[in-house]
Amino acid sequence: MRGYLAAVLEGATREGALGAIAEELGGISTTVRTNGPLRDVLSDEGLPPHLRRQIVEDVFAGRVTTAAAHVARFLVEAERPSELVSSFDEVAERAAAEVARSAEDVLDPPASRAAIAERVSGYARARFAAGVDRPGLEELEDELFRFVRTLEANPALVEALGDPLLAPTARAGLATHLLGGKVTPLTLDLVGYAAASAEGRELTGVLEALVGQVATQLGRRVATVRSAVALEQAQRDRLSAALASAVGAEVELREELDPSLLGGFQVAFGDTQVDATLRRRLDQVERLLAAPLVATGGPGAGTPAGGGRGGGVGQDGGGSAEVGTPALASPPGAPGTGADDGGGAS
């Protein structure tokens, strides 16, 4: 709600209509709070969100501006029914505070990364509701993705943009200064709001979540693929098809080259990460070889030579030991590799 309202009030400010929309939101709040039948039906836990939205549209259509109606509709869809009355009151209070605040005042308190991501998501939803065509969304997705990659490659830039000692307006100003003239106005606004909201290293993660939100708006999902060498087209097609089958939506692959992986690839897909790289396999072998041998007792307590399970430690009756290592029959971590050892996905 905070992010959605921020975008609506920002647009009203640009149009010179901030005072008018604040007054309208105050009127909506008063109506919901004082009209018993309306309050009761909107607070009904058993009423589906789409019906609450329809009721709000029927009650306020033609009586308030489109922007104010969008805020009311968003509230009844996003907030718990039992909290709707207080949510409408809070929206009215925040709108009135926005009218009175100076540029240095901060209305949104610091929050967790998840809460900040929700604020930025709400801000983006409001901007999308105002009307963004598909080419505009595709351009936004590409610009946000490229900016995230720029941040990942420049830790000093991340520190500067996320400096908690800087005022939110200063962080937003720095971000817009960096991107000014290089991206569309929508991208500039979204990055500026994210920079004002997120502190420290949270900014990169918040922007990554925003890339995913834009992809969802386009009806697809985004998977980031890191590999030592560029994937062949056949590999891209197989990977895209497998991911699309898993989630039931079109999947767009964003590729990055990372020679340190040596071979294979990593896939980051929402909260899921798959590491099928040669680097990971070699690290596993190194840890296995460095593990201490486990003594199994005195004479006669051992197992037959080579009897250790899983390629681990085997010990014969004479006390000698051997350490097995995983077979590397095919390029480890490459597409088509055989059974994994269980550590490839989380």
Structural description of this entry:
The chain contains 14 helices and six strands. The chain folds into three domains: 2-100, Peroxidase, domain 1 (Orthogonal Bundle), CATH 1.10.520; 113-218, Peroxidase, domain 1 (Orthogonal Bundle); 225-292 and 328-346, no CATH class. Residues 300-346 have low confidence and may be disordered. It has helices at 2-14, 18-34, 36-42, 49-60, 66-78, 84-100, 113-129, 134-153, 155-161, 168-179, 185-197, 202-217, 233-247, 278-290, and strands at residues 220-227, 250-257, 264-269, 272-277, 313-315, 321-323. It has 346 residues and is of the alpha+beta class. Strand 3 (264-269) and strand 4 form a beta hairpin. Helix 1 packs across helix 7 (113-129) and helix 10 (168-179) packs antiparallel against helix 11 (185-197).
Tally the beta strands: 6
CATH topology of the largest domain: Peroxidase, domain 1
Strand proportion: 5-15%
Helix and strand pattern: HHHHHHHHHHHHEHEEEHEE
**CATH C-level label of the largest domain:** Mainly Alpha
Number of self-contained structural domains:
3
Structural class by SSE content? alpha+beta
User: Gap between N and C termini, in Å?
Assistant: 32 Å
Record the strand order, biggest sheet: 2-1-3-4
Cα-atom radius of gyration: 27 Å
Quick tags:
346 residues; alpha+beta; Peroxidase, domain 1; 3 domains; 4-stranded mixed β-sheet; two-stranded antiparallel sheet; 14 helices; 55% helix; elongated
